[in-house]
Amino acid sequence: xxxxxxxxxxxxxxxxxxxxxxxxxxxxxxxxxxxxxxxxxxxxxxxxxxxxxxxxxxxxxxxxxxxxxxxxxxxxxxxxxxxxxxxxxxxxxxxxxxxx
Length: 100
Known about the structure:
Mean pLDDT: 76
Keywords: Chaperone
Subunit structure: Forms stable complexes with CPN60 in the presence of ATP.
Largest sheet: 6 strands, antiparallel
Structural class: mainly beta
Pfam family, one: Cpn10
Order of helices and strands: HEEEEEEEE
Number of helices: 1
Family: Belongs to the GroES chaperonin family.
Number of strands: 8
GO molecular function, one term: unfolded protein binding
Strand order of the largest sheet: 6-7-1-2-5-8
CATH architecture: Roll
């Protein structure tokens, strides 16, 4: 995990660790694999942002630890650890989950 902390995405990209959906419910019921679940993930690293026409930095609105909804397609898969799946996305493709 220390190597992942040092990895900084470029521009307005973010590194996301996909959250694996449980195969059983809290009560022990097996969940069908055909059920549509939203892909979600946790932001691991954030790039510095992009620049506008005048050269001003536009920072990324997400921060490390945020939970986001992921699109089904469009990310670039990155293999950093064999048991976990990491994907990079442009920030405009992600939807932040607000937890109340």
